[in-house]
Design brief:
Blueprint lengths: L4 E7 L7 H12 L3 E7 L5 H10 L4 E4 L4 H7 L2 E2 L1 H4 L6 E4 L5 E4 L2 H12 L8 E5 L3 H11 L5 E5 L3 H11 L5 E4 L10 E4 L22 E4 L8 H8 L4 E3 L2 H16 L5 H8 L3
Parallel strand pairs: 1-2, 1-3, 4-6, 7-8, 7-10, 8-9, 10-11, 11-12
Antiparallel strand pairs: 3-5, 5-6
Helix pairs in contact: 1-9, 5-6, 5-9
The chain binds 2'-monophosphoadenosine-5'-diphosphate (ATR).
Length: about 270
């Protein structure tokens, strides 16, 4: 029998992660011999869990909440798109056993917008809500698409300003508070964790036209609070984070295995029409 390479997604909690289903489907589709499991790490035991996984012959890890920042710190080398993100969602060992860290979240988001939904960011006026780790992880790939302007709005303005300064050399960035926002925008991306609790940032009116595309990086079976707001405001297209989840997984798979899976059938499996 072929030796199966071992992969896992590590987080806390982890039981609801869809990653094992996604990667199992990718492996079947591409004929790659691998297993992909869930790994629950204790809140204070992420480093140990990662070291043990690789010491026992593990080939690669995806990292999720709340360990992406620690994963970035553990990596001995970062892929360019992960360097400024300060967060890593993909780990593997190089031939010299250096731990390499990548962040495939932003590439996944950009690809879901452009390839799966035909939304172009080039020349667009983009609003990003939130300035935490999730937003840090997507800014470089978003800016690489050449938007006219990216406005970062956050409850704590200093954090938005910090990101503006950090990424200023990659494009036109503006930092502001929710109250100071002046629309309309072509694309609005929700990267706050408010959505996880069904909350919504206090957003003014006038941000949305029927042409505005709204994207919640969160995914849930039911409509998210942000997407319900976007619908009430009349946004023509509202998307949730399922496409991003599948695309970031494909990007990790590509890094590990050198082959890009076809994401369409996997998306259809997870969300039948
Ligand atoms: P993550 O890694 O998921 O981004 P984080 O770094 O804790 O987590 O960041 C959470 C983001 O959601 C922040 O932008 C946070 O705003 P603050 O920087 O002001 O804390 C935002 N956020 C969380 N709850 C929110 C709420 N109820 N309303 C508005 N923004 C919220």
């Amino acid at each position: 029998m072929t030796e199966q390479a071992r992969y896992a997604v590590v987080g806390n909690p982890i039981e609801h992660s869809l990653s094992p289903r996604i990667h199992a489907a990718f492996a079947e589709q591409t004929g790659e011999a691998l297993v992909y499991e869930r790994l629950l790490a204790p809140l204070e035991g992420f480093r140990d869990a990662v070291e043990r996984f690789f010491a026992e012959g593990g080939a690669g890890l995806n990292v999720t909440v709340p360990f992406k920042q620690q994963a970035w710190e553990m990596a001995g080398r970062h892929e360019p798109r992960a360097a400024r993100a300060g967060a890593v969602n993909t780990l593997w060992r190089a031939a010299d056993s250096t731990l390499i860290g990548d962040n495939t979240d932003g590439a996944g988001l950009a690809r879901d917008l452009r390839v799966n939904n035909g939304v172009t960011l080039t020349g667009a006026r983009v609003l990003v809500l939130g300035a935490g780790g999730a937003v840090r992880g997507i800014l470089d790939p978003l800016l690489a698409e050449g938007p006219r302007e990216v406005v970062i709005a956050n409850r704590t303005p200093a954090r938005a300003e910090e990101l503006r300064e950090l990424f200023a050399d990659s494009g036109t960035l503006v930092a502001c508070t929710f109250e100071d926002l002046a629309g309309p925008f072509d694309v609005i991306i929700n990267g706050t964790s408010a959505s996880l609790r069904g909350d919504l940032p206090p957003l003014p009116g006038g941000l949305i036209t029927p042409e505005t595309v709204c994207y919640d990086m969160m995914y849930s079976q039911a409509e998210t609070a942000f997407n319900a707001w976007a619908r009430q405001q009349g946004a023509g297209l509202r998307l949730d984070g399922l496409g991003m989840l599948v695309e970031q997984a494909a990007e990790s798979f590509l890094q590990w295995r050198g082959v890009r899976p076809d994401t369409g059938p996997v998306m259809a499996m997870l969300r039948p029409a």
